[in-house]
Structures are given as C-alpha cells and as structure tokens.
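Agenda item 2: adenosine-5'-diphosphate complex prediction
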Amino acid sequence: MKKIAILTSGGDAPGMNAAIRAITRTAINSGLEVMGIKRGYSGLINGEIFPMDKEYVADIIQKGGTVLMTARCLEFKQEEVRKRAVKILKAYGIDALIVIGGDGSFMGAKLLSDLGVMTVGIPGTIDNDLAYTDYTIGFDTALNTAVEAINKIKDTSTSHERVSVVEVMGRNCGDIALYAGISGAAEAILLPELEFDKNALYRTILDGKSQGRMHNLVVLAEGIGGAIELAKEIEEVTGIETRATILGHIQRGGSPSGSDRVLASKLGAKAVEVLLEGKTSRVIGIRENKMVDDDIDEALAVERKFDQKLYDIAVVLSK
Ligand code: ADP
Ligand code: F6P
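Presented output:
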C-alpha cells in the first residue's frame, strides 16, 4: 500500500478536521502518499481528488466543519456508480480509502470494499448513534454547545418563572438529549428510546410549581420532535407560560472540544495503523477507553443499548 485517500461524508461534525489532520500526518510520517477527496462520495465519482501534504492540515485542528466538505450522494447506492468510483480510485493509484462519517457512510465504504477497495471507517457524527463505539467524533462538542444554550435559556426562564422546552438534535438517538438533560439539570428528559407519558410530565411541572420551583426545563430529543406544539400543550394544561427553543444546526458547528480533538486524533492514527496491518472493511472505535477496530458489517449490526442507568440517575437528581 502506497497511497491512501480520505473523505468526509454525511452530516459534518466538529472534530472531523482533527481526524483529517491525524490521518494525513500519521500516513505521511509512515511513508504513505495521501489524497483528499472533496464532497464525500459525490466528489469521489466526480474526480474531485487532490494531493494532501502536512501543510494542508496545519491550523485546522481547532476548526469546526470539515475542510474536505461533505455531501449526501444518493447515487452511491447504485452498484454501477460504485464501480465507477472504483475505476476512478484506480486511475489515481489509490490503494485504500478512509471514510469519516456515520452509518450510511460506513455502508458505502463496506460496499466499496466488496468491490476490492481497502476501506476503513471513522465514526464522525454528533448523534453518537453508532452502537459499536462508546463515542463518536463531534458528540462531546455538540453536547457542550447544547449545555451552554440551556444555561442561557434557564436564566431567562427562571426570571419569568416559565417552563422551557429545548429540542436538541440526534436523529433517532437520544444521547445528546440525555447528556444535555443531566448536565442542564432538566426536570424532564424526553427521549425516542422511552415511552413518553404526557400526564406524568404535566404532574412533574405542577408539583414543581407547588413546591416553589422557579422554572422547569424540559429537554426534548429531535427523535420525538414537536417542541412548539408541546410547549403550547404544557401552557394550556398547566397554566404556566411556556417557551420552546429548537437548537438546530448551532449544535453541528463550532470549534471542537478538547475531548473531540483527542478522540479524533486517536481514531485517525489508528485507522492508518489498521491499513498498514493490511486490514480492510474495518471501522475504528473506542470502547472502555481503548481503541478498537471491528468488521464493518459486525459493527453496523450491533444493537444500540439505551443507558437506562444514566436516565434513572437523571430522574432521581431532578427530584
Ligand atoms: P451518515 O453517514 O451520517 O449516516 P447518511 O446516512 O446521509 O449519513 O449517508 C451519507 C452518504 O453515505 C450517503 O449520502 C450516500 O452517499 C452514502 N450511503 C448511505 N447509505 C448507503 C448505502 N446503503 N449504500 C451506498 N452508499 C450509501
Ligand atoms: O446526523 C447529524 C444531524 O445533525 C442530525 O442530528 C440531524 O437529524 C440531521 O443531521 C440534520 O441533517 P441536515 O443537516 O441535512 O438537515
């Protein structure tokens, strides 16, 4: 193996640049050539491929987003399109591809490896929805952004003795909501992994009011959604003024946290090591603070386990 390429795919996540830097520097320092592919699989099939050097990745570790840009490329689900991609990689003399993204991006990488390309995936998504790894790049930064926003919302909510409903991202995964809810001392955390009892929520809010609580914070995962409607219903049923805030894409941007930079650096370095060992169709992750590499199919088949214990702690602490 002489030449590898990197692409970022799916939703961007803070820390992707730190991973790009780690891959590039580890590979070049191991004697490999590195190519960058712009705009994910879409750039691959359009031949948006260029040589990367150590200079290209200087001064990017602190930047949010991805310098390689990202895209969603639905055509990549077609086999003939992927076969075209393989020809393009061959034409550039690229022996292996490192894909930074979520499960969809990993599926694309797996299908490319079925066509003979060496591939390795690195988990990059704010959602933390890949079960084989304890954490994904970007989750910690998104969590901290959500917590900072919640702190600010609580200031105004307390001053007006209101209820605040804050909707956070995460697609079908409640991790951002659960972690942000516990960090922001929420009175209620509503997650797609759990049944949601509206009457219990109203009772919590009314009990809090009768005990002299100045505000109520409800953190709602996007996987449930409907923050604006829920705020209206809470106001109607409890008689307490309620406001909804949907944090949205603010959670995807910003300078990555120290933890995300370290995680991305470790995952990037490990991805190159795995390729140098001659392995393919692998994904890198972190479990119990140790770097792991797993077969892509096996990793994608791991069922997500909900952290019931953490949720139970949040409930006890909110009382
Ligand atoms: P994420 O990687 O964050 O889960 P997506 O699910 O949007 O994001 O997937 C990103 C890209 O990966 C898609 O736009 C497509 O190019 C590729 N991809 C997703 N699913 C598949 C699939 N089943 N086969 C081939 N490529 C796929
Ligand atoms: O997967 C990351 C994520 O930000 C999810 O939390 C959210 O559901 C989705 O992407 C939003 O996608 P888009 O940027 O395409 O609106």
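Discussion summary: Residues 9-11, 41, 72-74, 76-77, 101-105, 107-108, 111, 125 surround adenosine-5'-diphosphate (ligand 1) (CB under 6 Å).
Owner for follow-up: CH.
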